[in-house]
Amino acid sequence: MTTGNMPRIRFANLPTPLEEARNLSRVLNGPRIFFKRDDLTGSGLGGNKVRKLEFIIGRAVEEGHDTLIVCGGYQSNMARIASALGNKVGLHVELVLGGTPEDSRARNGNLLLDYLLGANVTYVDTVPRWEFGTALEDVREALLKRGRKPFIVPLGGSSPEGMAGYVEATAELVQQLTAMSIAPDRLFVAVGSGGTYSGLTLGAANSSAGYEVVGISVSRDKQYLIDKIPDNINRGAELLGLKSAPGCESLSIYDDYIGDGYGALTDACKEAISLVARTEGIFLDPVYSGKCMAGLIDLIRTGAIAKSETIVFLHTGGWPALFAYDSDVLPPAPGCP
Ligand SMILES: Cc1ncc(COP(=O)(O)O)c(C=O)c1O
């Protein structure tokens, strides 16, 4: 692999821990489950975006840009992490966020941190929240007129550069698995823009990983992702000098756990967040990792995953959004106020 030649700035605390979730397995009467703790990548409170941004910001700095333009939803984790990392390397950060300033969650969770980090926020009232029309280009034009050198961070960091972070994460994980003599059957990951899933799939195809990468979509339908992801993977493979991964017929993606849409809490997600907090002391988030865990739990309970299997759950972070969902995430369970 050729990441050695790619511009990169080291931000992440690596390797992230690989921990067995024995209590969770026991309560589910299910398979062995290991958490790969990418919620602990560190910078900007951590999450999967840190690995991607090492390469993306590396390129922006090498090309002489002085400003990052970052888009996402109101509670975008990418916005929070890019704002923090931008500050570390002296880049100004412009956020273009889907929603309106009147949103009741405006100044909590990730958005509170965005403001604290000093990012400039432009709101775009858009549905679906990942379609920004000309907004990014408009912000870019305005910055260029003011003499700045803006760099548009791709949505979710899902460029071939961003994927490099998760090809490397695969090598890190395989090393840990080997050292611990664990051979998992499947690796679970939340799918938003699909860059993390693509990088993990490419990484698995080019290593001795041996597991299936299972994606739980939090927003888009399965067909959309199956049409799009092979192209992502091919472009990543080309950039990194790797062999590509198998075609779309072999991608394992579920869109059954989205509920009413991106960011809309489901009962299963609430249960997953509460269960993992109470068994393992680990916080999941209401938008990504909670829904991914809801999918894993359902597949265990319905018998689609056998007790004899071994599962790795990639914890992609996102828990600051919990504070924007406050009472929504508390379960209607005995003992809960
Ligand atoms: C916490 C968290 N998990 C998972 C994802 C999904 O990653 P990707 O966009 O690469 O599919 C995101 C993306 O925003 C995220 O913030």
Index terms:
337 residues; alpha/beta; Rossmann fold; 4-stranded parallel beta sheet; 11 helices; 10 strands; globular; binds pyridoxal-5'-phosphate
Could you write a compact summary of the structure shown?
The chain is α/β, with parallel strands linked by helices and 337 residues long. The chain has 11 helices and 10 strands. It folds into 2 domains: 3-47 and 158-329, Rossmann fold (3-Layer(aba) Sandwich), CATH 3.40.50.1100; 50-157, Rossmann fold (3-Layer(aba) Sandwich).
Explain how this protein is built.
The structure is a single chain. With 337 residues, this protein is of the alpha/beta class. Helix content is 40%, strand content 15%. It folds into 2 domains: 3-47 and 158-329, Rossmann fold, CATH 3.40.50; 50-157, Rossmann fold, CATH 3.40.50.1100. The strands form 2 sheets. Strands 1-2-10-7-8-9 form a 6-stranded mixed β-sheet, with helices on both faces. It has a 4-stranded parallel β-sheet with strand order 5-4-3-6, with helices on both faces. Helix 3 (77-89) links the parallel strand 3 and strand 4 (92-98). Helix 2 crosses helix 6 and helix 3 (77-89) runs parallel beside helix 4 (109-116). The longest helix is centred in the middle third of the chain and has 20 residues, at 160-179. The radius of gyration is 19 Å and the shape is globular. The mean pLDDT is 93. The site of pyridoxal-5'-phosphate has 20 residues, from helix 3, strand 7 and helix 7.
